[in-house]
Protein 1
Amino acid sequence: MTEKSAPRRKGVVGVSSLTERVLELLASGQATTRTELATLLGAAPSTVSFAVGQLMTHGLVAEVGTLSSTGGRPRKVLRLGGSDGYAVAAELGGMHAHVGVVHPGGGLTDVSTVPFATADGPEAALPGLTDTLEGLADRHGRGLLRGVGLSLPGPVDVDSGVVTLPSRMPGWNRFPVRDWLEDRFGVPAAVENDANCMAVGEHTVQPAERRQSIMVKSGTAIGAGVIADGRLYRGGSGAAGEITHVRVEAAQDTPCSCGNTGCLETVASGAALVRILRERGLDVTSTEDVVRLSRDADPEATRAVRQAGRYLGMVLAANVQFFNPDAVYLGGILSTLEPFVAAVRSQLYEGCHPLVTEHLVIERASLGADAGLVGAGQFALQRALAQALEAVTGAHLSPAGTAHLSPGGNHSSSPGNHTRAGDRHP
């Protein structure tokens, strides 16, 4: 077995891209000192210091004290300039939205769930949601609002900020969500697929050595986000992780929401479980009903949930065998069910070579339902930082939402008594 990927070697990261990475690591709270930045980036300390110096000159980074050390000189603590700011974020579901305030460093406050009718279309549904987000902004000070993040349950064209061909979002196709939000709030906005948001949110609180991972969201539908060498991997057209429409033999010719037949979604998603259990005579109308029955040890529901986990595990095994990640994280409401998680785990061990699973971590997302919210907020803060740096230096950075992140443990750079996402990591 080859040795696990190590942080990038010194000299590999150029100054321009390194400057962007420094901002991202400070924004996510994964680094607070020059030493930590150099370690995570695999860059020479002198190169990191030069990049930090440039950012300090433009007021984008500031020093806020020193960190006690057991040996050598105390290390100066870095934070984003004006890092008292924050982003408001929302993760959309079918009938509800998860909302909250995300602070630089990964702090998460004011989390709640509000009604949101996705099926009504964006022009009908978004105004009520933005009223809620504006209420959060008014509570925390509109002058400190840096960005707005939105996690969407469908494919997203990040460059243009629109949803593309969403199978469960009628009326949303090509709607300019990002522009709509920026017009409403007057600050940078970021829109992203929900599985990618979860992947980024969870990645920021995981150990530094886990540089390759797959996050699977199993709810009404199924999605996956891929972290490769510490960065969100999008693929050639931004569709990386679309495992939900992989054909599986057990699905036969069952019609899928994508217009094809025999997709994984038709036998392993929450929507599929509702259909299957209704055909067996159970009174279920939602994925939440399926979860409730399974938790009550209903035999039909438990069997169906376990089988869904096996089907997901079969498809996931092929991806794990090919990609050889350090970790597989399971999120979404179905991941709260032990029979489902156990079936996925069992299928991965059965379907993959022992060299692939020898050190593979398979676990529920440590942030739970908050992972997507943290990720959406981080995308928004990064987009705001990219625009700020471009405005003061003329440097053109990669599009917001690219999320060039490196894992770095549970640091915290935001002041105050925020709930740090990493603090909930067991």
Protein 2
Amino acid sequence: MTESQGSLSVRSAWLDVPPLLVRQFAALALDEVPALAQDILREIRVEYPGLPVVLDDSGEPMALIGIRRALEGFVQQIASAEGRPCYPLEVFQEFGRGEGLHGRSLDSLQAIYRLGVRLAWRRLAEIGQQMEIPPPAMYELAESGFEYLDGLVDQSVRGYAEAAARQEGERLRLQRKLMELLLSERRGDPAPGSASGSALDERAARVGWQLPERVAVGVLLRPAREAVAPAVGQGVLLDMETEQPRMVVPDPDAAGRPELLRRAMAGWSGAIGPPVPLADAAKSLRWAEVAVRLMERGLLPSGEVLHCTQHTEALVLLQPEELIEDLARRCLAPLAHCGPAHGRRLAETLLAWLETRGGAPEVAARLGVHPQTVRYRLRQIRELWGDEVDDPDRRFELELVLRARRLRGELGRVG
């Protein structure tokens, strides 16, 4: 043992043991290693009968190799006059990876390590007593043994973390593949038994996702470049690899689901498309994308994750922009010769009249002006549009384009 080996300081009892006696102790302990390793493995299997047996290329149990190398490493540390303990890295990292890949926690592995240390220490204590090594020195040796155990656990934790990271990466990769298939416009027939349906079933099974009857697809806007993924809960598919993250919400109307998403999305903004049958997931995505574009243009509320079903009017009227603008040019042509301010007042009055179908008092109350002012404007509207304002189809088109103008902020909001 050396000065650099942790708890055994320069004045430690172990360093006072004559070097010859230390070498003899180490030699006896090394001779015991093969049989001791077998005994330890046998006891571990009795205590943990469900422990899987993994063999190396030569057919020898990996656990036995690890125990033997750990014992040899510790005994060599005892006899060494310099350097730090050397851990059998690859074996114990592999143990940690094995626990991660089989879905077990590290608690059971650490319990096995502690059992092995107790059994090994029992035999080392017997050798120390046989060689008449002073008890204080053996106590310090025991402390060093548990420090050595901590080093082995560290290696297993590294392996476990590596396996967990790989598993999570693979899970996310498979989840993205599933989402790509779900959201594909050219997925074809999704019916069970079809080629497309079989592929979907297979990909869903690989990530443990139960195919729902209905879904809603969301598109998110990151609050910051390095924003942590929202905790959307089990069952919600989330792809954070795209510039605008996407998610697939199964059974979006299920009890508790909307509230769960609302809490998870705090601090995020974006849109969730309408609930649709699973086969139509791409349609829900399209509407969510439309809503996000309107949010970015300031035409829909930002700073939250909105639901398309709560903004149907805006999505229907603002999405086909070119068609609505063409219709507006034709329907609102009579206003072309009015000044901007007067034309806007007439348009607001016309829309209020179309929405209320009331007389001057009702329209005036909606606009917050005097009824006589409304009567004057309505006469002008009659002069500009003539009998068209009495035609149901023309009235519908006028209300359509005027509502679209109001949604864009070009007309005042009333009522």
Protein 3
Amino acid sequence: MRPSASGLTLDAVTSADKALGGVARTTAMEGSRHLGELVSAPVHLKCENLQRTGSFKIRGAYVRIAGLSPALRAKGVVAASAGNHAQGVALAARLLGVRSTVFMPLGAPLPKLAATREYGADVRLRGQTVEDALHAAGEFAETTGAVFIHPFDHPDIVAGQGTVGLEILAQCPEVRTILVAVGGGGLLAGIALAVSELRPDVRVVGVQAEGSAAFPASLAAGRPLALDAPSTMADGIRVGRPGDVPFRIVRDRVDRVVTVAEETLSRALLLCLERAKLLVEPAGASTVAALLESPDAFEGPVVAVLSGGNVDPLLLQRVLRHGMAAAGRYLSLRLRLPDRPGALASLLGELSALDVNVLDVGHVRTDPRLGLSEVEVDLQLETEGADHRTRVRAALRDAGWVVTE
């Protein structure tokens, strides 16, 4: 058993696993036939979105707080987060009888604020960003003596997250590749530490959003580098700099880190909902996005870790629209019709026969290119996908409708 560059060993992960007995759930491993056909190998989804508090974060938070001395526990704990880590710390502290204070940015989603409070934390809103909240949490720790619980940059956090790796190997011993979402690196480092010790033949691959990918450049430089302005809809992995502790493990034990586009994150979230019946946040869907972008790049059987399911309903609404557009489910058309009663009704009947859902209809009568007895109609349609869109266009033209756009 070799220690990692951070000093962590497999014993730390197995000890964390014992500490989490009766606390963290052994989450389900669900097969995905759709993704399996795409990859031409079995694909399994590790459902940490079904974990307590809706993400894997309870694992590391509980191990970290449980390891504090009675004197330190008496001082309370403090954390900063926009969502998942906040809820994990709040619940872990409540289970251990420790007072918790969580700083969150003013723009944090209301459902996550409410959930963190319900788990027992004293929630305080500070600043516009997570960095502002982190600064406030640091000041609070200095003035009160409360123990700061970092979201990823601590050995106990990494060990706790590594218990996901133990479960994967037990549930899917035939696995050849494990895909893991990456923000600061705690989950990836923990899984890689456990898996590389027990199954060095299994490849562990990290997945980051293109607009918030600090690891590729950091790995190339050999040290953690900070991004100027990380940007992605996947707030769970929108981290500007890898943690020092996880970086050393990732550098030594992870096969590679890949990136995925925002459009693919939307498609992946939609796929999880429609095909797997699983509500997954954009960060959690990043591993599925990696399979969608590069289905031939990973040796199977593949396990994709769905790291969380805490998605704000308003964001979910926007992401679903974006994902449907990215999947070719929307079609915008402009048609020229005779300006007489019944023409639009006839067109809508044609669309109904083509199994198209009409979302919006707009009339254009002022275009100088139109004749006196003509009108143009803008249609926003919902289709079954790219092939259906092509069939709809062709069928309308074959039926004699003048499609101008």
Protein 4
Amino acid sequence: MTSTTTEQLSATTLLRFATAGSVDDGKSTLVGRLLHDSKSVLTDQLEAVALASSNRGQEAPDLALLTDGLRAEREQGITIDVAYRYFATPRRRFILADTPGHVQYTRNMVTGASTAELAVVLVDARNGVVEQTRRHAAVAALLRVPHVVLAVNKMDLVEYAEPAFAAIAEEFTAYAASLGVPEITAIPISALAGDNVVEPSAHMDWYGGPTVLEHLETVPVSHDLTACHARFPVQYVIRPQTAEHPDYRGYAGQIAAGVFRVGESVSVLPSGRTTTIEGIDALGESVDAAWAPQSVTLRLADDIDVSRGDLIAPADDAPAVTQDVEATVCHVADRPLTVGQRVLLKHTTRTVKAIVKDIPSRLTLDDLSQHPAPGQLVANDIGRVVVRTAEPLALDAYADSRRTGSFLLIDPADGTTLTAGMAGASFATEAAPDTDASAEDAEWDF
């Protein structure tokens, strides 16, 4: 790569996006077509795909094989795991997560879309909006993905008919809008033939909108973390205690959001103690200010107790501290999540013991109704939970911050991730913990 090309890529913006849709809607073919037609595939990759396609008796290369890397995926012709691909055009760099379509792999879509700024939901033009389409739209809405593209695929199999596209676009747009999705763009495509993927289609002159790639290149990317509430989860305490730095004490980590400045008054949570930022070290040099997502070391004016898992935030804009967490979750483990279960809750760099106090409801994706008191959540279920933690947490609402409003529930026995959570109306309580909860926590030692 030449230095000029490197400079061009460093100057372009980055878009993280995910693809989703029902089984056989053509997600992997669309991704393969994007990579192929944007000239983001190496020659040896194309040769490997052509050989694999030939061995399966196909005359033309199957572009879906560019992303379906697992042997089971190629044998079954489906996507099982999330496939990440990195590519770039002169206008933008991309990180793509190709997620599975099967119902039992909905949790993989949660993984792929959790950091996405845009989701491409595919629909087969012959089948229209199906249950899994609604499921993926709901997941995108819950994860607050700001942009959703409806790609109505296989238009070549409905003779590129505008009414077929219009009916699907109208139904999906109404459903997604009811979920609170802020922006929906519908594009008619044929991933197999390449219509409206990278190049405009000659078969759909009735469509005057952008191609998929053109929309991906031009959609506004609004992941400016510097405009968010400033948050700094402490990862590590640095105390060299050397002759050169006998009294140095710094708190290292990655700024999750916002901007921190020398001289600013900050609070250390969950203790609530306040101090000021005496210095900021970045890449071995002192700076006056630092912003997300930089990794820096903060030096504080007062010698107070700060350790890994604490959160540093502006004194006048600190999140509430609570031990009662109410959240929307997607259960990702094969074993169920039950009321009374003991778990670990991991929030940023802090991990605390917790107990599932209640599962008030499970979401029914067909009609978005709430099934009350299900008793448990099984794999791929989306529901509400109430969790009581053994120690206070400085938790933002997920609606305010995707970084500091999210958490994981983990099995303490083997470290398995059980549930991905998005904090809702968490609140601080002045009430003392009840006797039963305290007794349970006292009996639970590592």
